[in-house]
From TrEMBL:
The gene is sbnC. Residues 410-446 form the Aerobactin siderophore biosynthesis IucA/IucC-like C-terminal domain. It holds the Pfam family IucA_IucC. NCBIfam families: staphy_B_SbnC (NF033583). This is Staphyloferrin B biosynthesis protein SbnC. InterPro entries: Aerobactin_biosyn_IucA/IucC_N, IucA/IucC-like_C, LucA/IucC-like. Pathway: Siderophore biosynthesis.
Length: 448
């Protein structure tokens, strides 16, 4: 059950993210058409349209833009409710004030997303169950914060309540994977992918799979067993691959194996027994309007990009000192007879095995942390990084300075060669030792 504090905290966070997003984008002139004034030392934006007035407390941030001062209440003229203002209510007010514009905004859709986001965040705050493994814990914190600045990030469209319970990393619910047998004649793979790695995953159910295929007059020798996300297995593959299933090019097998936990991306699944080995599989719910697929062309791009990154690291002193990359060259995908790599269908049936640098996986003195996890603002994580319970403001400032210096050094070092990885908080991890950044670890190389 969600407690009152978690509900209020979640509503406040989603409201803050919504207001900041509207201010940043200057939606409906919420900044440019507002009067800027001060009351009792607090800067206010007074936004007025259609005889309605809103007073938004703001501060001028280091990014040279207004942001919502969330310690102060937003005042909506004529509002009589004593309940805290919610993001959905604020959004509806802005829409009502801009009837000439809001017909293009999908108002009801956004309102639904804001309500779901607040509900799920409240649940995750109240039922947060941290794993004992530091790396897994950091993925949970990264998932808890989710994409910063996006008020709808916590909504995963297409999921039911029971799905959130199992597939959100914060709730620490592990689950097995399902299996699809893909005919070898309709499969492609990475240039250096070792099929033994994939087959080792499904060893526990290979004998059963062999028997099930034999019962259909098929031979295991003609197929490769693909791990499949259980949600994808149930809701997507039977429809998207209906023709291929009827032709026995794809055979869905009712078999389960392994014990996995969602990472912050939800597509990449953490092997509970080997947390530095991830299985990345399609999971076709919507997050921020995009289906969480793993298109074949992206994996091919990633393979080439990883080669480039390794070449640059080898030739540059700063990159060699600070940067390591995950091995994402082991991937497999269904491929149609037409070899059309741009077909959306392919992105629904792929698998990638991600391996983190072994030297870090075996180093018990370091903490490998997704940079996005740092935005969750939880003392547990900072205590782990700094190696002490009492964290001072100076400790945090010193840590931030260290992170910023290394991050900028790495970014500029890549840029001098005309290349730049996708360096957002979910794709870059930091290895800390004794409270200092030792390495940056890059993953998801497909958009270099």
């Amino acid at each position: 059950m969600q407690n009152h504090t978690a509900v209020n905290t979640a509503q406040a966070i989603i409201l803050r993210d919504l207001v900041d997003a509207l201010l940043f984008e200057d939606i409906a002139g919420i900044v440019s058409n507002s009067e800027i004034t001060k009351e009792n030392g607090q800067t206010l934006l007074i936004y007025e349209r259609e005889t309605q007035q809103i007073k938004i407390p703001v501060y001028f941030s280091a990014l040279n833009m207004f942001r919502y001062e969330s310690s102060q209440p937003i005042t909506i003229e004529g509002r009589v409710s004593k309940q805290p203002l919610t993001a959905a209510e604020f959004w509806q007010t802005i829409a009502n004030m801009n009837c000439d514009l809001s017909h293009e905004w999908e108002v009801a859709r956004v309102e639904e997303g804001l309500t779901t986001a607040a509900t799920q965040l409240a649940k995750q705050l109240s039922e947060l169950d941290l794993a004992s493994h530091p790396f897994v814990m950091s993925e949970q914190f990264a998932s808890l914060k989710d994409r910063p600045f996006h008020p709808l990030a916590k909504e995963k469209r297409g999921l039911r309540e029971a799905d959130y319970q199992v597939y959100q990393a914060e709730l620490n619910q592990s689950f097995p994977l399902m299996v699809a047998a893909v005919k070898k004649t309709h499969m492609i793979h990475g240039d250096t992918a070792n099929i033994d790695e994939l087959e080792n995953l499904t060893v526990p159910i290979k004998e059963q799979a062999t028997d099930m295929l034999n019962d259909q007059g098929l031979s295991i020798d003609d197929y490769v067993l693909f791990p499949v996300h259980p949600w994808q297995y149930q809701h997507i593959l039977p429809n998207v691959f209906a023709t291929e299933i009827s032709e026995k090019l794809v055979v869905l097998l009712p078999l389960k194996f392994g014990d996995y936990l969602s990472s912050s991306s939800m597509r990449s699944l953490i092997d509970i027994g080997a947390p530095y080995n991830h299985v990345k599989v399609p999971f076709a719910m919507q997050s921020l309007g995009a289906l969480r697929l793993t298109p074949t062309r992206y994996m091919k791009n990633g393979e080439q990009a990883e080669q480039l990154l390794r070449q640059l690291i080898e030739k540059d002193e700063a990159l060699a000192k600070y940067v390591m990359v995950c091995d994402e060259t082991a991937w497999w995908s269904y491929m149609g007879q037409d070899n059309d790599i741009f077909k959306d269908q392919l992105g629904h049936l792929t698998v990638q095995l991600r391996k983190y640098p072994e030297v870090l996986a075996k180093n018990d003195t370091q903490q490998l942390v997704s940079m996005a996890a740092l935005a969750a603002n939880d003392r547990t994580l900072y205590q782990m990084i700094c190696g002490k319970d009492n964290i001072s403001k100076n400790d945090v400032m010193t840590l931030f300075e260290d992170i910023a210096q290394v991050f900028l050094k790495v970014t500029l070092s890549f840029m001098q060669y005309g290349a730049l990885p996708e360096l957002h908080g979910q794709n870059i991890l930091l290895s800390f030792e004794d409270g200092r950044v030792q390495k940056c670890v890059l993953r998801d190389h497909d958009t270099v």
